[in-house]
Amino acid sequence: MKIRLKEVIAPVFWPVHRAVQSGRVQEVVAKGGRGSGKSSYLSLELVLQLLRHPDCHAVVLRKVAGTMRASVYAQITWAIGALGLAGRFKCTVSPMECTYLPTGQKILFFGLDDAGKLKSLKVPFGAVGIAWFEELDQFDGPEEIRSVEQSVFRGGDYALTLKSFNPPAMARSWVNRYVLQTRPGRLVHHSTCLDLPPDWLGPKFLADAAHLKETNPEAYRHEYLGEVVGSGAAVFANLRLEPLDGETIAAFDRLYHGVDWGWYPDPWAYNAVSYDAARRTLYIFDELTRTRTPNRDTAALLRERGVGEDGGFLTADAAEPKSCADYRAAGLPCRAAQKGPGSVRESMKWLQGLCAIVIDPGRCPDTAAEFSEYEYQRDPRTGEVLPGYPDVNNHHIDAVRYAVETIWKRRGN
Predict the structure, then answer these.
(1) Active-site entry in 45, 97, 134, 135
(2) Edge-to-edge strand order for the sheet containing 356-359?
(3) Is pLDDT at 412 greater than 70 in this prediction?
(4) Residue 193: exposure state from Cβ atoms within 10 A (0-12, 13-18, ≥19)
(5) What 8-state DSSP symbol labels residue 100?
(6) What is the pLDDT of residues 149-180, one digit of tens each?
(7) How many CB atoms lie within 10 A of CB 62?
(8) Which of 1, 216, 249, 283 is deepest in the core (most CB within 10 A)?
(9) Is 135 in the active site?
(10) What number of CA atoms fall less than 13 Å from residue 295's CA on the CB side?
């Protein structure tokens, strides 16, 4: 029986499939809410790429081994059947593996509660070329993921990593930070149940989703749309994380630059922004973050970016007059921020009152993380939100505040 891929791969995943097929992508991070189709797609892609590369094998990983039979093992056997390949695979649960009979290639299943098995992993020929981390957020962090990848990818000409998860509600979760970091060959994809054909989900699923949307919209956004909704204490409710292309940035007619001084452990932070007054929208499109870096070196970095040549203001923290003087001596038009009573409160209120703060997470991952994770503090006894803005993990936020000081201080703003 011949299966047409468009019958089993949802349209929302076709751009991802084409990117994998072309060889441009070595890592797919699929995130989304319930019923988003991400696990189904990745299981299909794993089998398809296994057959396409006859010298490699695949491993499927979850944090806890006891969860695999009813989840990833069932998902892989479904994908094999959906592709019309059931007769070509032998699947067993002890040991838990699926073998492609024409070549002897294997799909092996591991839980990280017994990570020692990975270190002694042996395949009958070739090497492991595909690894799928399901429920990525349940792993202990990027260090554990990196250690596993180093263990399984040894030798071989082909490597593809697949990662899937439902985003945790809190922006500070390591996995939510992870997807903000760009690297060559990584493709991050977000899907929701709204992207799939309704008949793939069934009336019961759709009715449950509709009921939750009506009765608890925030829970619906988190569970079904896969949104990072936070704890209800987010400072910036007007934040939008989206890419800004070079053409859009080139069209910005007024640029503003800000610097927050730092050494270690607090970093030196720089941001470039543009403000659309008509739409009351701030665009943050460039950043630099450094530790233990002298003023002469950070000044050189800014000159390389053309700061001072574009006519834009450069405003820095007034707490270090010598550093501001060092920048002016280096040829940068650096002015000290005019701090005063209430300046933090007024500048933060101005940022919060904008229609949108748009940050390109690819160009500005540190800034995106800070703005996303910045929350009001809560009383540890009562759980009530406390007034004031926490002075922690806000280096790029401060750089942005300094950059826009001349804007929010204008009369009428």
Answers:
(1) 135
(2) 239-241, 356-359, 281-290, 268-276, 255-260, 313-316, 334-336
(3) no
(4) buried
(5) E
(6) 998 998 888 999 999 999 998 888 899 989 98
(7) 23
(8) 283
(9) yes
(10) 18
Domains and CATH numbers, the chain: 5-201 (3.40.50.300), 239-408 (3.30.420.280)
SS3 state of residue 236: coil
Cβ pair 17, 8 in contact under 8 A = no
* Distinct helix (H) and strand (E) counts, the chain: 16, 15
**Cα gap 175→134, rounded to integer Å:** 12
For residue 80, the tally of other CB atoms under 10 A from its CB is 21
pLDDT digits (tens, 9 = 90+) for 346-385: 999 999 999 999 999 999 999 999 999 998 888 788 878 7
CA distances from 278 to 140, 152, 160 (A): 45, 53, 45
Residue 17 scores a pLDDT above 90: yes
Indicate whether 94 pLDDT > 60. yes
Q: Residue 284: which H helix or E strand, with range?
A: strand 281-290
Helix or strand run (H / E) with residue 273: strand 268-276
Mean pLDDT confidence for 245-273: 95
Residue type (1 letter), 374:
Y
Q: List, in order, residues 6 or more apart from 84 with CB less than 8 Å away.
A: 1, 2, 3
Quick one: pLDDT band at residue 90, thresholds 50, 70, 90?
A: very high
